Here is the input.
Amino acid sequence: SYVLTQPPSVSVAPGQTARITCGGNNIGSKSVHWYQQKPGQAPVLVVYDDSDRPSGIPERFSGSNSGNTATLTISRVEAGDEADYYCQVWDSSSDRGVFGGGTKLTVL
Amino acid sequence: EVQLVESGGGLVKPGGSLRLSCAASGFTFSSYSMNWVRQAPGKGLEWVSSISSSSSYIYYADSVKGRFTISRDNAKNSLYLQMNSLRAEDTAVYYCARARLQGRSDYWGQGTLVTVSS
Here is the structure.
């Protein structure tokens, strides 16, 4: 089965740039989606199809995907960005949805 | 406004059954595929099942295949998850979500908690 690997935690100071990676075998050939989840809340889609943003999501959130790594980049990080972030793909070879293990973003 | 409201969660004994429902509003339900995603306490997200708009295509995670059944009633704008032979490891918050291309979930409900315990 397809596996997505994320770092458990990332820390960044306010105003700096946070980068959260998602590793998978030839993930660059897949469409990667990213979700933000704050404590006690449902996940929110923040980036889809590698680099597109849903309406209402700040431009500070961006994504890229190439080779074996996809990256969610959050520029000018704010305290309100502190949350868990999950990457996700659809594995068409097995017809299964796959989530990464999640990354806790801490704003110092 | 898109709204998804799950119901049917609760406490059930191992080996028992439960049926979750998800009431959809604010969009043309019959035009969209739907997903169930769960999250065990303190753990990450796990995709559970997907169903196409006309129920022609149905997919399950290996962890629930043969025990869970996803279904929908487009006339009632409702999505269901019938859960049988429940195990302790099925304890989780279950979310329904609207599915888009490439499996992404663009709108989520608030979730319903299922606890499997004796």
Notes: The interface with chain A takes residues 35, 37, 44-47, 50, 59, 61-62, 95, 100-106, 108-111 of chain B (CB under 8 Å).
